[in-house]
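Hi all, long-time lurker, first post. I run a small reading group and we've been trying to get comfortable going from sequence to structure in the token notation. Rather than ask abstract questions, I figured I'd post a concrete chain and ask someone more experienced to write out its structure so we can walk through it together at our next meeting. Sequence below, copied exactly:
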Amino acid sequence: MPHLVIEYSPGLGADVDISALCRATYGVMARNPLFPLGGIRVRAYEASVAIVADADEENGFVAMTLSVGAGRSKADLHAAGAEIFEAAKSALARSLSGENFALSVNIREIDPDLSWKANPIHARIKRAN
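-- Answer (accepted) --
Happy to help. Here is the structure in token form:
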């Protein structure tokens, strides 16, 4: 881990470059030594149906959830989350300039006793460095 899942409102991809949002947030994570490169995943999914706030059809959202393994300090996670949030705000500046858009970033820590992984990517990256 860390895995960043980006969920966004139906049709938003027509107005927003979701790939650029993914690249921007990935870049923040890849530069941060808090996150092992071999564990980073950024993926985005369009919601097939969504009702946002007052159900105005113009409303849209991006909801981001960063899942991380245990062991990082709250202060370090807060700093990383703030940096990811700023990158997302920059990538979504046009949407955020209106009054029908919501952006959120949440971090959740995974209990290591309830998490299983098989990831040979870490070994390949170590060999390459």
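A couple of things your group might point at:
The first strand starts at residue 3 and ends at 8.
The mean pLDDT is 94.
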